[in-house]
Specification:
Helices cover 43% and strands 18% of the residues. It is α+β, with helices and mostly antiparallel strands and 289 residues long. Helix 5 (65-72) packs antiparallel against helix 6 and helix 6 packs antiparallel against helix 11.
């Protein structure tokens, strides 16, 4: 078979498998409380993604003025990342506490870096539940999947998610406050250094099924509205996405929905795959083989 024929056959196979997953009735996407001053229904809708608005978690920048003063002195993203890391160590005792805990045989205090590392191993880990729970708390957007599909008919799956997201193992060091600062630093870095002037970033995700991200509207053979999980991994490199599934989802992600990207800091656990952590809701995505 010629290369062009193989490519066409692959595209048709991808479309056939896509057609097996018909749009589902909209699930309850979230609750009305959040910390960003816009309704959850709007935040989670394709309308927000089409015309995004600035988002800030209430009080974070105001209560951490010294951090943003230090960031303002940074000449590049590497310097800004170092300033953020040093501030987090000073504020939450992460570095000193880790050394003392190791010496005394105690468990480590929870840190945002530990959550990111756990997510990198498995987004359905307890660390992943805490990150999804933070999105639920700050943006009001419920997860669609954690170890299993989360909907009204799955009380056991919900119970597992709630137990893991609230575990004292991770809520011993103001972990949501740490994630608030990570989000605000990420937004500052996007505007200042990473994607200045850009409203969206084109990102890719490989998948083999649609349990985690159910389709809600089919626009045509390739374009659908998909309800992304409250937090999802994407990459800026399409070839990397191809390693994680036969169907590639392409999305224009508003920069306001990025919690983390792989060049945000010089040292972190997600360096290898060009990873972006994307806040969910309904997205219009293009599917391809």
């Amino acid at each position: 078979m010629a290369a062009g024929e193989r490519h066409q056959a692959g595209e048709q196979d991808g479309e056939t498998r896509l057609s097996r997953h018909e749009p589902q009735p909209p699930r309850h996407i979230g609750h009305s409380t959040n910390h960003v001053g816009l309704s959850t229904a709007f935040l989670a809708d394709v309308a927000f993604n089409a015309r995004p608005q600035p988002l800030h978690i209430s009080g974070v920048r105001e209560m951490n003025g010294p951090l943003f003063e230090m960031l303002g002195l940074a000449a590049d993203l590497d310097e800004a990342g170092d300033a953020f890391t040093n501030y987090m160590m000073a504020m939450f005792g992460i570095d000193q506490e880790q050394r003392e805990a190791k010496a005394a045989g105690r468990r480590f205090r929870s840190s945002y870096l530990r959550l990111i590392k756990g997510w990198g191993y498995d987004s359905n880990s307890p660390e992943g539940a805490v990150l999804k729970g933070w999105v639920e708390s700050r943006f009001g957007i419920f997860p669609t999947f954690h170890k299993a599909v989360l909907d009204r008919g799955a009380p056991d799956a919900w119970a597992t998610y709630v137990v893991e997201k609230m575990s004292s193992r991770f809520h011993n060091n103001s972990i949501y406050t740490q994630l608030d600062l990570l989000y605000e630093f990420c937004q500052w870095a996007i505007e200042r250094f990473a994607f200045p002037g850009d409203s969206h970033v084109t990102l890719y995700r490989g998948t083999n099924d649609f349990n985690e991200h159910p389709m809600t509207v089919r626009l045509d053979r390739r374009n659908v509205v998909m309800r992304l999980n409250s937090l999802s991994s994407f990459t800026a490199n399409r070839d990397i996405a191809d390693c994680f599934g036969d169907i590639i989802l392409t999305a224009r992600v508003p920069v306001q929905k990025i919690l983390f990207f792989n060049t945000l800091m010089s040292s972190h656990p997600l360096k290898g795959e060009g990873e972006f952590l994307v806040i969910g809701g309904d997205y219009q995505v293009t599917t391809s083989r």
